[in-house]
């Protein structure tokens, strides 16, 4: 039975602890949801086919999936993996279970140029705009996920959306009391335990709520060429909660909260040459530390690539929401606040001599006894991660005036402030080579390593405050018997970065934190009017002569006025044509700004054009678009070999064009099929200046020119459903000089669900998933370069998962 198209205005509101938060909305924010209600009212057609293709009515290139499809995928999987069948989207998972990370591109734009939103709240790292797939909401709690291909919504609260936006929304609380749970087991000792308690409507006001908990763990998978299973484990704990409250005709309200912990050992990357030669990627599995005692001890017998030091711990949490208040029949106010917390690092180890000048600082001490053996003659291995700690506050609000039955105007305001603390406090490791604390010597966590000058030993120390103030206006109306939709908007972001570097800086990844006094280098300028400095050889582990910029404090601002225009026309009840134009901006990342010499590469901008056609009936959906993007001022890290430094530079313009298409077909009640195809071409317009790199005419890295996907679902009887899906990814360049190309691949997955209703267990089923069905050998997530070789994540092996899902 085909579903009717849901109304988009599901947004609701809450007042909790003085903060308004919201319920699920079909769009990214309650403001966008409210204005899109006008669009849905004028739409016709089915809601979806199999949940893998959803009817779209916005006058822009957009693709969506809903919970019906999401639930068929591997339980506990990151939501980004479920987007992988969409046109223009390519996601490579670092393991089969979604807890080890991964990488995503859309229309040739990498993850740092894509905005990821959760209930309208921006999730990209506020410093480098990175996306962390393994920290996302459990898929059982997700109602729908939507991708804007190459564009934003007019109120998108982001400074990093040159390539488009991804938004997923949280499931609302149920009207009836119930319990939902899952237990899953699979390859590589995979275990998953998940449960949700629904309160139903309770109390005098009909309040609804749910609370959910999750634990999952698995061993690292054995790569195709590995001689044995590598050591390491991945664990994740997650708790979520939601409260929904209705206030009659005046509004609705929700409070939504999330907390997530990940403890991961890294899966080692590999070069293309080693992949072709079947060289096994692995970290060292042994660490032998000498017992502290009189005389010189050297920890070199415990390598820094020991698996126990290469970890990726993270603690993240947020409170978020969307809200909508009906001030009158024509006036709606929405207020969407949020708070986010992040504490995470990427592990790492390093050796220190106990007489290192960085430990001695500006004192006359002989050294620091790091291993407690009573002398300062040793070389000691210490845990030295780069830790990021962020506290982020935001609010997105809209005032919407519906001055006619089919026309509305809104004014929106967004505020987003992130205090982004990046430190590298060093910590101790135990006798077996594992960190005493995953966050090392960070305040409030582990025991810091303290130098003779009383300062914590650290590899970086900087504070960034990113503030976005954004004003948007939008007009929306339907004309010609509701066949013509006109959407015109302007987004004006005002973005500011306050930057504080408390250490000497060689490049963004190499700081020197010390109380020593450096030696000025005559004739140099670090951008602040002060000369660069050098330090003694022993302080830099034999890297004498490196020049460092001084500690500094500065501020940068970026602003623009960005149009967002869309038109669509219903040719018939089934056929719709649309066109859109949008401009986007991506301000420089903090890693583009913390350099030896103070440089501002400026923001990236994009102009996106789309022309699309949709055909939507209960049995057949076809969506396709030709598009073009004019991407300007691309920022990349470049190497100045003459001076031995890396820095961020504006390397020029890139033209992109392509085609995205998807089709869903349901010929019978029991059979449905889906297919998508994308062609993406990119051309760098010039050579990178200053470093003589021949890039003109080349393609962007990590961008397959051709990719496609298929899925077939067959339900022979009411209690049994089969699904099989495949994703083809073409060859991808790994650098901007186009001298190394990673081969394409095709990965197939399968799923089977057996409902147990006939045994009196309504809502209970067994589900089997097989990931990488034919055990394809491939390379995924890449660390790309301007030139030369790159490293990539080896694809996971064939993986089996069995899940018992029960509802009461």
Task: Compute the number of strand runs.
Answer: 46
Our Rg estimate from Cα atoms comes to 27 Å
By CATH reckoning, the class of the largest domain would read: Mainly Beta
Strand content: over 45%
Domain TonB-dependent receptor-like beta-barrel: 305-773
Family: Belongs to the TonB-dependent receptor family.
Pfam families: Plug, TonB_dep_Rec_b-barrel
Subcellular location: Cell outer membrane
Characterization of the model:
The chain is mainly beta and 808 residues long. The chain is built from five helices and 46 strands. The model is unreliable at 1-27 and 40-45 (pLDDT under 50).
Topology:
Blueprint lengths: L29 H12 L6 E2 L3 E2 L7 E5 H4 L8 H4 L6 E5 L8 E5 L8 E4 L2 E2 L19 E8 L14 E7 L7 E9 L3 E9 L9 E12 L13 E14 L4 E14 L5 E2 H5 L37 E7 L3 E3 L4 E15 L3 E5 L3 H4 L18 E5 L3 E18 L2 E19 L32 E22 L4 E18 L2 E4 L2 E3 L6 E2 L12 E2 L17 E8 L2 E9 L4 E12 L17 E13 L3 E13 L2 E6 L4 E6 L3 E15 L2 E14 L21 E12 L2 E10 L2 E2 L7 E2 L2 E11 L9 E7 L7 E5 L7 E4 L4 E9 L1
Parallel strand pairs: 6-9
Antiparallel strand pairs: 1-2, 3-8, 4-5, 6-7, 8-9, 10-11, 10-46, 11-12, 12-13, 13-14, 14-16, 14-17, 15-45, 16-18, 17-18, 18-21, 19-20, 21-22, 22-23, 23-24, 24-29, 24-30, 25-26, 27-28, 30-31, 31-32, 32-33, 33-36, 34-35, 36-37, 37-38, 38-39, 39-42, 40-41, 42-43, 43-46, 44-45
